[in-house]
Amino acid sequence: MESNKGILLESGTNELEIIEFEVNQNKYGINVIKVKEIIMPAHVTIIPNAHPFVEGIIQLRGEVLPVVNMRKVLKSQEQTYCANEKFIVTEFNQQKIVFHVDNVSKIHRISWERIEKPSDLYSSQSNEIVGVIKQDQDMILMLDFEKIITEINPNINIKVAEVKKLGKRERSNKRIVLAEDSALLRGLLEETLNEAGYEQVKFFENGREAFAYLDSLLKEGKRITEEVQLVITDIEMPQMDGHHLTKKIKETNDMNDLPVIIFSSLITDTLRHKGEIVGADAQVSKPEINELIKYIDALIL
């Protein structure tokens, strides 16, 4: 299954397609854009002393790929997979990873508006759930796959040490709006941007909240570019995704001069055109924090 062909005819529609899969009789979802293909389970070679989530490695058309056991990730007591088990082959954060699940059932095309952010009562920074979809009598839980991979290998995430390689940084009074649904990444971005000299960063959990803030400034009669000098946005977010946020900014009078950087694990050569279509001024793949800072410097200094 190719993930990026014929899925969304237009960018910025605030829609996505998700693949519904099952683990221990619970239903979960993954963005089709992340998925390269779905295959039958292959022979897994066990790696000594690997992370508990890592089942081992497989060889797929000449590539050696890690296999993540989703029953262990989701802390299932039952570790035996059912007869319909599948391997979901993914690509994001500039790497390919295989997720072992019980079953893959169907594809849904939905609006991001239908995805509710998790309540604080059952979610936390340590939780893998980033969104909830009500589907008939069931619920589909959207998982934070970037967080899962970071837990396995913390070295692939955003790091303050990388910013220090840029040398001494001057403090800046430039104001930035940043939309990111992951609490973990918001914390890391705040720390690294502060290290880079950008301390005036206002964080929002999704594109809808970020745009509502910008729109409120306009309604107060303020000039946007005097109040905010740059917007940074993720792509995958409940309520409003980053492509739709970018499109709304670029199509709104008195707001369209505001530079927008898309900072996402979904920035690949085959998907970069989606950001270009909606008018993004720059696109950077996570976790390339140095590249992000270089673009910030170029756009607002």
Automatic annotation (TrEMBL):
<dbReference type="InterPro" id="IPR011006">
    <property type="entry name" value="CheY-like_superfamily"/>
</dbReference>
<dbReference type="GO" id="GO:0000160">
    <property type="term" value="P:phosphorelay signal transduction system"/>
</dbReference>
<dbReference type="InterPro" id="IPR036061">
    <property type="entry name" value="CheW-like_dom_sf"/>
</dbReference>
<dbReference type="InterPro" id="IPR024181">
    <property type="entry name" value="Chemotax_regulator_CheV"/>
</dbReference>
<feature type="modified residue" description="4-aspartylphosphate">
    <location>
        <position position="234"/>
    </location>
</feature>
<dbReference type="InterPro" id="IPR002545">
    <property type="entry name" value="CheW-lke_dom"/>
</dbReference>
<dbReference type="Pfam" id="PF00072">
    <property type="entry name" value="Response_reg"/>
</dbReference>
<feature type="domain" description="Response regulatory">
    <location>
        <begin position="175"/>
        <end position="301"/>
    </location>
</feature>
<dbReference type="Pfam" id="PF01584">
    <property type="entry name" value="CheW"/>
</dbReference>
<dbReference type="InterPro" id="IPR001789">
    <property type="entry name" value="Sig_transdc_resp-reg_receiver"/>
</dbReference>
<keyword id="KW-0597">Phosphoprotein</keyword>
<feature type="domain" description="CheW-like">
    <location>
        <begin position="15"/>
        <end position="154"/>
    </location>
</feature>
<protein>
    <submittedName>
        <fullName>Chemotaxis protein CheV</fullName>
    </submittedName>
</protein>
<dbReference type="GO" id="GO:0006935">
    <property type="term" value="P:chemotaxis"/>
</dbReference>
